[in-house]
Design brief:
The complex is a heterodimer. By secondary structure, chain A is α+β, with helices and mostly antiparallel strands. Chain A contains 3 helices and 12 strands, in the order αβαβββαββββββββ. In chain A, the strands form 2 sheets. A 9-stranded mixed β-sheet of chain A has the order 1-9-8-7-6-5-4-3-2, with no helix packed on it. By secondary structure, chain B is mostly beta strands. Chain B has a domain of 63 residues. Chain B is 0% helix and 40% strand. Chain B contains no helices and 7 strands. The chains are: A alpha+beta, B mainly beta.
Chain lengths: 278, 109
């Protein structure tokens, strides 16, 4: 049912594109067939932390984060309170991805925590003073263009650049950090495998001041072979057991009681409660 | 375009109304169309069939097209000051301290 609905939305988007006066016709055959449900392979990890070209400063931040996680903290990973992962982390594809291509925009739809992306393919240039013209977002501002690399009249790849992100962001739950200045630039090449139409690749290069050089990795996603895949709903806040009060992170027990997450953690400041009545 | 949505999860409430969809029985039927007289106006006629209602309830929602949209991001949890602990709802004030939301509210346990 859900899948049928999403197909309906594509049909509506297509119909609107054709209907509006002056709009160019949308020839879907020019684009690669990216329909269906795309799933990541393996754990949602970015890459080997030991291979990450972190600056000395950010290597120290990462290692302090690991020590904090080892004693029950969350380290630098900001998503435990349902904060959006942002770019480039969403391309770990925590929940299955649907790709919706329209003439002006390509949408990467993912559940999880606000992971969906909107990639403008309408030929626009970067707005002047981007971070002032458009409020920075976790997902960033993405401009893409489709390219016909082999000249067969059909697009082969989507080339994307993303800027204007905000933070905090990490690459994955290990807490591997991006720079706090949020000057990250992410460049991608998204394409179907020539030999396997059920394999999608994303070559991702991250340029970030926490790195000593651009860092490129390749992500591979596989298409669900079920022609009517199930799209599950993921609502982070629905049963999130984490809560931050002041500068401390606590955990709810199954009975709804507040619990420490580390040995010796002080309880929250309760000065606003009348403790004499309790 | 016509569509039907079923299988709603308990708790998917309509503006604070009690929900009878305990067994996921709510059905939502929609007809989404552009308004002929105004191509920048989209209309959604929504009919809800739900055991909390005495009859199907139809409402119409109109949406106006913005041609030069700036898409902003809204992350509810980014600055959510409400926190629920056990069966109680508390508030985190500007100084990041836990505060009661009603007189005489007990502190969390």
């Amino acid at each position: 049912m859900l899948n049928r609905s999403s197909l309906g939305s594509i049909a509506l988007a297509t119909a609107l594109c054709v209907t509006i006066g002056g709009a160019r016709a949308f020839d879907q055959s020019q684009y690669p067939d990216l329909k269906g449900q795309w799933q990541r392979i393996g754990a949602p990890r970015w890459g080997s932390a030991s291979e990450a070209p972190l600056t000395e400063e950010y290597r120290a931040i990462f290692e302090a984060n690991l020590r904090n996680q080892a004693v029950g903290g969350q380290g630098t990973d900001p998503t435990f309170t349902c904060l959006a992962p942002g770019m480039p982390r969403v391309m770990n594809v925590y929940e299955p991805m649907e790709i919706v291509i329209t003439p002006h925009t390509t949408h990467l739809l993912m559940q999880h925590i606000h992971d969906s992306r909107r990639i403008f393919t309408d030929g626009r240039d970067w707005p002047q003073n981007l971070d002032q013209a458009v409020e920075p977002t976790f997902a960033g501002y993405s401009i893409g263009h489709w390219v016909d690399e082999d000249g067969d009249g059909r697009y082969d790849a989507l080339i994307v650049e993303t800027r204007n992100m905000k933070g905090p962001r990490t690459y994955d739950s290990t807490g591997l950090p991006l720079h706090q200045d949020n000057q990250t630039v992410v460049k991608e090449r998204i394409y179907l495998s020539n030999s396997d139409p059920s394999a999608l690749y994303d070559e991702i290069t991250v340029i970030d001041h926490a790195l000593t050089r651009p860092w490129t990795i390749a992500k591979k996603y596989v298409r669900n072979t079920n022609k009517d895949p199930v799209w599950l709903e993921s609502v982070c806040a629905e049963n999130n057991r984490h809560v931050v009060i002041g500068k401390e992170n606590y955990f709810f027990s199954a009975d709804g009681y507040l619990m420490p997450v580390r040995k010796g953690q002080p309880p929250p400041d309760l000065r606003y409660f009348n403790m004499r009545k309790q | 375009m016509r569509g039907v949505t079923a299988g709603l999860v308990f708790g998917a409430v309509l503006a604070g109304m009690p929900d009878a969809a305990m067994a996921h029985q709510a059905v939502v039927k929609e007809r989404i169309s552009l308004v002929k007289a105004d191509p920048n106006l989209m209309r959604d006629e929504i009919t809800i069939t739900d055991h909390a209602l005495t009859r199907p309830w139809t409402v119409t929602r109109d949406y106006r097209r913005e041609h030069n949209a700036i898409w902003i991001e809204t992350i509810c949890s980014e600055d959510n000051r409400q926190v629920r602990i056990g069966r109680e709802n508390y508030y985190i004030n500007a100084d990041d301290q836990l505060t009661p939301t009603r007189k005489g509210q007990p502190p969390p346990t």
